[in-house]
């Protein structure tokens, strides 16, 4: 088990187009041991850890100063395991399939398989992401399981951090690994709520919201 305060973390320079399998396997090992990582996405850098890992989640909450009502997001390589974690109708599944990977966060009704600490405390909903980012997708495929994740937005900031060396300078002693995938976009995801029959766009960001508007 890795604990906060055990010294400086590692930083891996991962090739943006051909991520090195050796480094991905090392990252997966850190995640498996309960480590907290920082990794690139199509909408800025994010914190990530093993699904349901309370110790890593507590570290994220401390770093971001989050309250108990903040929704963590499940980040997956594809939708192959969606039925384990979310309840979706066939029409919704088809729409999700059409827009993943992409810069969207989808709010879905969760199943009982989702760790309780990931859920919205009142609504039992889950945020789902399939980022359109080569390094992230390769990491998730190597991990063979989703990550529990949230954007790397530090207290007082209004956008995710985007420069990996700066992230390492600020957080190198408080996370276990920074995956350097180059500078990322800072534009947030578009958030679409699929918990009812009609999708509702909750936030407009990098993903085109137009396919989900006017469907009611």
Jot down its keywords.
disordered N terminus, 216 residues, 25% helix, eleven-stranded mixed β-sheet, alpha/beta, DHBP synthase
Q: What does this entry look like structurally?
A:
There is one protein chain. The chain has 216 residues and is α/β, with parallel strands linked by helices. The protein has one domain: DHBP synthase. 25% of the residues lie in helices and 23% in strands. Strands 1, 2, 3, 4, 5, 6, 7, 8, 9, 10 and 11 form an eleven-stranded mixed β-sheet that branches.
Number of domains: 1
CATH class: Alpha Beta
Number of strands: 11
- Rg, alpha carbons: 16 Å
What form results from the Cα inertia axes?
Answer: globular
Summed up:
The chain is an alpha/beta fold and 216 residues long. It has one domain (10-210): Alpha-Beta Complex (DHBP synthase), CATH 3.90.870.
List the helices and strands and how they pair.
Blueprint: E1 10-13, H1 21-32, E2 37-41, E3 44-50, H2 54-64, E4 73-75, H3 82-85, E5 86-87, H4 90-98, E6 104-110, E7 125-129, H5 134-143, E8 147-151, H6 164-171, E9 177-180, E10 190-193, E11 200-203
């Amino acid at each position: 088990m890795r604990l906060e305060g055990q010294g400086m973390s590692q930083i891996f320079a991962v090739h943006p187009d051909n991520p090195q399998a050796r480094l991905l396997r090392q990252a997966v090992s850190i995640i498996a041991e309960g480590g907290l990582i920082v990794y690139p996405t199509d909408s800025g850098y994010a914190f990530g850890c093993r699904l349901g890992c309370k110790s890593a989640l507590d570290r994220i909450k401390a770093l971001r100063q989050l309250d108990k009502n903040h929704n963590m997001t499940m980040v997956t390589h594809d939708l192959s395991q969606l039925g384990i974690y979310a309840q979706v109708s066939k029409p919704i599944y088809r729409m999700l399939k059409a827009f993943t990977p992409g810069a969207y966060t989808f709010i879905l009704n969760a199943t009982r398989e989702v760790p309780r600490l990931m859920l919205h405390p009142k609504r039992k909903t889950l945020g789902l992401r399939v980022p359109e980012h080569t390094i992230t997708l390769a990491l998730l495929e190597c991990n063979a399981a989703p990550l529990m994740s949230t954007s790397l937005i530090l207290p007082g900031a209004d956008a995710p951090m985007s420069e990996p060396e700066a992230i390492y300078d600020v957080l190198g002693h408080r996370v276990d690994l920074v995956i350097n995938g180059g500078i990322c976009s800072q534009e947030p995801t578009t958030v679409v709520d699929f918990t009812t029959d009609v999708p509702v766009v909750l936030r407009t960001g990098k993903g085109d919201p137009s396919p989900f508007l006017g469907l009611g």
